[in-house]
Structure prediction request, 140 residues.
Amino acid sequence: MPLPDGTPAPTPLSIPIAAVRVALALFFLGMGLYGLAAPARLVRPFGIGLNGATARTEVRAVYGGFGVALAALLVWTAAGPADPLRRGAALAVAVALLGMAGGRLASRFAEAPGSWYPSWFYFWVEATAGGALLATVTMA
Prediction:
């Protein structure tokens, strides 16, 4: 039953759903701030060298700014009612995470990474986080 202002009433799952989304937001915030502050160190485990300001700007944008923006979006999805817009935003982030995991899996067939870390580690992070976030969308 909706609340007097017309928003959907909280469900018993509201707190666990919000907790998953906030935990993922903290992960993205940490990655984003690290990417903004130390772009070369962030990508070093992947064997990527950043030669020049243009390369560092790209990492700051993709890992830094995008990560901070996703963190803010996930906090927003956790802070309000389970309306279609918030569910859609959470779904978009879940699909993006699963897409990254899928890209790592596809890469396995093109050329296998030489070690478990960082490629397979982040595959499992992305697959698990994407699946958990997707579950919050279907439970809401």
User: Anything to note?
Assistant: The chain is about 75% helix and 0% strand. The mean pLDDT is 92.
